[in-house]
Amino acid sequence: MGLLVLLALWQALALAGGGYLLAGPLGVASWLAAHGGLILRALSVTLANAAWGFLLGNLAAILLAAIALVWPRLLNLVGGLALVVFCLPLVATGPILRVLMGPGEGPQVVLAALAVYYTTLIPLLAGLRAAPQVWFDLIRSYGRGRWSELAHVRARAALPYLLAGLQISAPAAVLGAMVGEFTGAERGLGVLTIRFTRDLDVPALWGVAGIAAAASIVPYAALGWLGARIADDKPPVILSPPRIVRGSPFRKAAGTALLVGAVLVLWWGGMEVLGLNRFFAKRPDDLAEALLWAPDAARTRQVLWAATVQTLIWALPGYLAGLAAGAGLAILLSLLPWLGSLMTPLAVALRSIPIVTTAPLVVVLTGRGAAGTMTLVALMVFFPTFVACQHGLRQAPGPILDLFRSHAAGRLARLLHLRIPAMLPALFASARMAVPAAILAVTVVEWLATGRGLGSLMALSASLSDYDMLWLTVAVVTVMAALFHAAVSAAERRVLAAFAPEQTHA
Asked: What DSSP character marks residue 235?
């Protein structure tokens, strides 16, 4: 029923707009019927790349989470390196990967993997800590170690969170593969998107967008169905002492210095080992020279600063709006479950339509200013927040829910006093995941449509083969995302110390 309502609304909007910017489902279906062979060939290529990226990225996430839990001292280093890699903007790393890897499917698979691994890693790490302390005490009383804790306690506790991460990453894999196809691929839905955008073929463009959305919705729904059947146990009551293990300022500074050093060593060492040409594969010392000592260093700093300020002005309001919308809708559906059949498909569809397809159209509708950019940033942040918060609301302990019901507590009282506090770890996990997503969204819009900010600077630098500026913008975007992530993590520690202290120490 919800799907029929959405289709009717879609058709009505298309008719109201005259079909100039929005093709209705009837027009899209007619175009797809006439070009079925072309779409199927492109879809098969994109799905294959997305599937390989989904598999490799999620395997990497599970491996990193296991390493961080078995050797807790490596948690900050592993998480920091994973964050830095995830913060690399796809619109800049795509062309670089194409130069490094050449023609073929390699860049598409790598970008799909990069788009998904962190969205699984963060919920998984939260889930691996979501277990009662008495379970770990029981494991230790039998003389077992961390591997037994991981296999018998943490893995089971983390299953709902893992499924939430996999659901979020399914549309991200399709998006990553399509962004990779934008960098010079010969086949795929991304290639068709470029072609139809240039031709202003509205039915074809929305046909490709609809197919991409369907390709994301199917695995999303399948993973949801699977999760409902294998993770249906009531969440346990988690009792944890209300304390946080805080490191000294010196240890925190040393950990940060270790992370920065590891990034620089891996960056420089990897390029030297591979023997990459310095013309396009810039090392840290090349960027330091371009930023500080080169004859035009002052102008370079001025251009970078102006672009950074512009990107921040558009990214932050859209990020906050997306968080509020995602959490708000999840809470609303917990109070009014009958709305789920209408709103959930719409939420998945909005996230599944690739931003590289919708960005030019939204900008045409809303202008090249702040409104369109903030809208697209909010859409990117909204979906992972919505999915994570839905799962978080279901993590309210079953025995406590029964206790509330026995005292005739209403749905609103259970929501305020139990479900929302249980949702907070998922909300903050999604807030951390959404930081790079917001930066990706704003840079993609700047790259494709607005002509301002860091995204536009990346596109201009790539077209002029100005690899110093291209790598500098990548570094600035990465540092910006890392600082935002650190701010969210600091807020998370303070809030969860009161509501979910088991999440604040391993």
From this structure: P
Computed from CA positions of residues 338, 341, 347, 348, in that sequence, does the dihedral angle turn out positive or negative? positive
Helices 75-87 and 249-274: crossing angle in degrees, nearest 10, is 50
405-446 tens-digit pLDDT: 777 777 778 877 778 887 888 888 888 878 877 887 888 778
**Structural domain of 335:** 19-237+251-503
**pLDDT tens figures, 153-172:** 777 777 777 887 888 788 88
Q: What is the mean pLDDT of residues 100-121?
A: 84
Going by C-alpha positions, the residue among 405, 425, 431 that lies closest to residue 484 is 431
Q: Is residue 4 part of a domain?
A: no
Q: Report which residue type is found at 409.
A: A
The count of structural domains within the chain is: 1
Answer for the pair 376, 359: CB distance below 8 angstroms, yes or no: yes
Tell me, what CATH number does 148's domain have? 1.10.3720.10
Q: Which residue has the tokens 């037994």?
A: 148
Whether 125 maps to a domain, the answer reads yes
Which ranges of 88-188 does DSSP label H, i.e. alpha helix? 90-101, 106-128, 133-141, 146-149, 155-181
Q: Quick check: is 12 in a domain? A: no
pLDDT digits (tens, 9 = 90+) for 239-273: 444 444 455 666 777 777 887 888 888 888 888 88
Residue 492 lies in a domain: yes
8 Å CB contact between 383 and 326: yes
Instruction: Specify the pTM.
Output: 0.72
